[in-house]
Structure formats: structure tokens, C-alpha cells
Design brief:
heterodimer; A: 6-stranded mixed sheet; 9 helices; B: alpha/beta; 2 domains; 6-stranded mixed sheet; about 15% strand
């Protein structure tokens, strides 16, 4: 009888360990076919939802429990601005991190001033924030960008800062899946995705990482899985990774469907 | 002050990446002697403040006025680290603080202050801000300043957690030579507690990055004093003893 074996590597976050994780990534990319996508769609369609459903690694880790209401703050804006600043630095080598963050901030403010920002967006919030809050936003973004810059320098291969998270709309199931990604390493046909999170990894960090791996693969135009998906928790000095194997992809998909089911049960309980 | 923190570039030691594993093992062994194999559902959390639980601790520094002043000066340091011009120290610091904290006991205490108390705190903070600005000067962007750097380390299978926030950190962890300097600001006069905090920052940073920082320092905006220590194995071992002592005083958890 065949057994399903998923992978989960747990290492300290050091340059040597990152080198090892990148170089030891398994070869032979795994591909998700249309049949896999159809199968996932039918599973999601089987779980009723009153509105549009959005799932990500965080909802998997929280077993579908509703997150508190989102609001923009220096902490929630740092990743958008910090990653944008690093992308900007790739194009302008002479730019310092602080200057790059200031330029990102200025772009956001310009967007709001020219009327391109919608209510609730980061640009809209920044435009309505007082000077000291913008200062703290800059400080948070600089800290985030510096941390990511240090990580990028510790990686053994040249990497790019992801332009956006990976999104996948499950057709006819009113479900959007989102995978967080920060750095992308490409070597030949293979790619490795690095995701950075604040705090410390909990017991369900592995399923969360597998959910991100699955969504990242679904969002790929040819359905090709990354060789390895690495999650970094710099505050804890820890990194976890999962390989792009079919077992891990299946496990990630199951975790996402289970989360949708858990959300539905919670709604039913609340209604009762 | 920032120049002193970085020191002479040619005299920096090579990055020591070997010491953290030994420190972690010493901590785990010490914790096992204290708490055994018990797995706690709620861990014992050790923060810099946990190391100060001594009768000699200044009462003023732990009063709500002192704590508020400490939080607000940290916000000012964060703003200064990215070159923000501060017009009104108190108002700017409060606005910045409110933007990142929804509710907290300390924030409620701030809201409960009457006009006289707020005016006193604002004047006090203004004086501390001037002391900090004079000492800190401008931090070059190339030194990679980052502020409010958080760290969390699980020990003894998660039964003990070390939590820390470094006010300001400069230098790179990826260079061949040790170049990370940790900077802490306090509005209290410096004493034994400040020394323990300096050591704790160095220990947690070493455990977190597996790289020994170059220096750790504390600046008092009350007296203008700067205490600075090069990080070495002896300093880190003393911090390990501090942590074990703190866990012993917090054990068993109530």
C-alpha cells in the first residue's frame, strides 16, 4: 500500500542553513493538471458559502476562525512599502533603503493626491495620516526592508522581490486563494519561493506553508510547483520549508478545503 | 555616540557564528534543572523587565509616569532614526504610538491624565528628547538602522520564551566581521538593571541570528550617560545566568 509522505524541514535561520536549503531542493518539478484543478473546484463547490470566500495560509493556521477587522497601521503597511522599496533599489543601485522607502511613500501619496486611490487603500490611509504617523510608517518599512535585504544577501542565488502575492480564483466556487511570497529564486526551470512572516511559527505553521505552496502552484500559468517553499520567521530565527512534491500539494489542498468546511461550520453554529 | 557605537572598522573581530549553539545548550540544561521535563501550556515569558525584579529597582522608573515617558521616548527614537523632524515631542510621540496600538493599559493611563499631569509629562519628555537628539546625531543610511526590532526565542521545548525589543540596531549580520550594534534608550538613570538589559539584548540577538553582535549599549536621557560594552562570551554567559535567575524567581508560574 502506498503511503503519503509530506515534507517539513525545520532549521535555524542562518546563512549556512539557507544555502543548504536552496542547494538541496529536490529536482524534477511537479505539475498540477486541469484534472487536479477541476477536482479542487468540485470540493470547494461542495462547501456552501454565503458570499465570496477568501482563504490563505493564515486562515488555515487559524482553522478558519475569523480574523479581527483589518486596519492600516505602520505594522500592516510595512511589507507593501518595504518590498516595494527593495524592488526600487534593484533598479537604482545607488539608492539607500531609507531613500527607497521614502520614494515608495511619496508614490503612494501621489496616487492619493491624483485621485487614483480608492477608500480603504493604503494610499488613502497614508494621505490622511499625520506627519508623525508617516514617520513611524517609514521606520517600520525601513526595518522590514533591511531585514529582507539581509535575507536576500544571505541566499546563495540571485533573487527577485515578488511583485505581488500569488492569487488563484477557483472557477465557479466563489473562492479566492492567496499565497504570500516575498523573494523568488530561479535556477534554470526550477524556482524556490521565500516567504517572510513576523512572530514565531506555531504548531500549524507546516500546514500553512503547504497551503501557500499549493496556491503558488495553482497560480502558476503551467501549474508547475516550486522546488521548495521556504518560510522564514526572522523574529524567532527559524525557517521551515516544504518541498514541491505531489503529497505536499495534496496536503495543502486538503488543508484549504478543511478550512472552508471549518468556516462553514462556524457560521452554522453562529446562526443557531 | 553613533560613531562610538560602530568604532574602528579595522579593529572589528570576525563574525562569531559558533557561540550561539553552546549558549542555547547551557540555557536548556539550566532550565531543565529548574523546571524539569514539565511542558507548560502557558509559557514562562522572560523580558528585560523580568530581570529587574529586585528591591533596589527605582520606583520612579516603574511608575506610570516613568513607563509612559519610556514608551514615548522610544517612539521619538524611532522617528529620529529615519530622519523625521520632530516639532512637538509629546504630541508627535503620542500620535505615532496610537497609530500602532489599539488598546493597552498604558494608553488608558495616558488618557486618564488630567491637564496638569499631561503638561508635566510633555515638558519632561521634551527635555529627554533634547538630550537624545544631542547625543544621537544623524545616523548614516548606509549603517542600516532599524528600530523596534523584535525577537522571541523558545527554550525548554517552548515552556520558556525570551521576548525582547531592541530600540535601535545598526550594522549588517551578513558581513564577514561583527558589525551589529544594539542601542537601548532609557529615561531612568543607569544602574544594574540597565546592565542586565544590555546583556539580555546581546544574548537574544545572538540566539536569534546565531551571530554574535559587536556591541551593546544603553543611553540614559536622564543623565546623558552612555554605557557601552563589546559583546564577548563572558557577557553572554552572564546573561544566561540572569535569565536562569529570572526563571527561578518566576517559577512556578501562578
Amino acid at each position: 500500500m502506498a503511503t503519503n509522505v509530506t515534507t517539513l524541514h525545520h532549521r535555524r535561520l542562518t546563512s549556512e542553513q539557507l544555502h543548504d536549503l536552496v542547494h538541496s531542493a529536490p529536482g524534477g518539478p511537479v505539475q498540477l493538471t486541469d484534472d487536479h484543478r477541476k477536482s479542487l473546484t468540485s470540493r470547494f463547490r461542495g462547501v456552501a458559502s454565503p458570499g465570496h470566500r477568501r482563504l490563505d495560509a493564515w486562515s488555515v493556521e487559524q482553522a478558519g476562525r475569523g480574523a479581527s477587522t483589518f486596519r492600516w497601521s505602520p505594522a500592516t503597511s510595512r511589507r507593501v512599502l518595504g518590498n516595494g522599496a527593495l524592488r526600487r533599489m534593484k533598479g537604482q543601485r545607488s539608492l539607500s533603503i531609507i531613500d527607497a522607502v521614502r520614494d515608495e511613500l511619496a508614490d503612494q501619496l501621489l496616487r492619493a493626491a491624483s485621485g487614483y486611490a480608492r477608500g480603504g487603500s493604503l494610499a488613502y490611509w497614508l494621505a490622511s495620516s499625520p506627519h508623525p504617523v508617516l514617520g513611524l510608517v517609514t521606520a517600520e518599512a525601513v526595518t522590514w526592508a533591511t531585514q529582507l535585504h539581509e535575507i536576500a544577501q544571505a541566499l546563495p542565488l540571485p533573487c527577485t522581490v515578488a511583485t505581488a502575492d500569488a492569487y488563484y480564483d477557483v472557477a465557479t466556487a466563489r473562492t479566492t486563494l492567496r499565497a504570500r511570497r516575498d523573494l523568488l529564486l530561479t535556477q534554470g526551470d526550477e524556482r524556490i519561493v521565500v516567504r517572510v512572516r513576523a512572530g514565531t511559527p506555531g504548531k500549524s505553521a507546516g500546514p500553512g506553508l503547504r497551503a501557500d505552496l499549493t496556491i503558488e502552484t495553482l497560480a502558476h500559468h503551467d501549474g508547475i510547483a516550486p522546488a521548495r517553499f521556504i518560510g522564514l520567521w526572522p523574529e524567532a530565527g527559524v525557517c521551515l520549508s516544504v518541498d514541491g512534491t505531489m503529497d505536499d500539494l495534496r496536503s495543502g489542498a486538503r488543508a484549504l478545503v478543511r478550512t472552508a468546511v471549518a468556516q462553514q461550520r462556524q457560521r452554522t453554529l453562529l446562526a443557531a | 555616540m553613533v560613531d562610538a557605537l560602530r568604532g574602528d572598522r579595522t579593529r572589528r573581530p570576525r563574525n562569531d557564528t559558533t557561540v550561539s549553539a553552546g549558549l542555547r545548550a547551557t540555557l536548556d540544561d539550566g532550565l531543565y534543572d529548574l523546571i524539569g521535563a514539565t511542558q507548560l501550556t502557558t509559557p514562562v515569558v522572560v523580558r528585560p523587565s523580568s530581570l529587574h525584579l529586585r528591591p533596589k529597582t527605582s520606583e520612579f522608573s516603574t511608575s506610570s509616569h516613568g513607563r509612559l515617558r519610556g514608551v514615548l521616548i522610544s517612539q521619538i527614537l524611532r522617528l529620529m532614526s529615519v530622519g523625521v523632524v520632530i516639532d512637538h515631542a509629546f504630541d508627535d510621540a503620542v500620535l505615532a504610538w496610537r497609530s500602532e496600538v489599539d488598546t493597552s493599559e498604558l494608553l488608558e493611563q495616558l488618557d486618564r491624565l488630567d491637564d496638569d499631569e499631561r503638561a508635566r509629562l510633555a515638558t519632561d519628555l521634551g527635555a529627554h528628547r533634547v538630550a537624545l537628539a544631542r547625543a544621537l546625531g544623524t545616523i548614516p543610511a548606509g549603517w542600516l538602522p532599524r528600530s523596534g526590532v523584535r525577537a522571541s526565542q523558545r527554550l525548554a521545548g517552548g515552556s520558556v520564551v525570551l521576548r525582547d525589543v531592541v530600540d535601535l540596531m545598526i550594522g549588517s549580520t551578513t558581513s564577514d566581521t561583527a558589525s551589529v550594534a544594539l542601542f537601548d534608550v532609557t529615561t531612568s538613570p543607569l544602574g544594574e538593571a540597565a546592565e542586565r538589559t544590555m546583556r539580555f539584548h546581546a544574548l537574544v540577538q545572538t540566539l536569534r541570528t546565531s551571530t554574535m553582535p559587536l556591541r551593546t549599549c544603553t543611553f540614559s536621557t536622564a543623565t546623558g550617560e552612555l554605557w557601552m560594552r563589546d559583546v564577548d562570551y563572558e557577557l553572554l554567559s552572564r546573561s544566561v545566568d540572569d535569565v536562569l535567575e529570572a526563571v527561578a524567581s518566576l517559577w512556578p508560574p501562578t
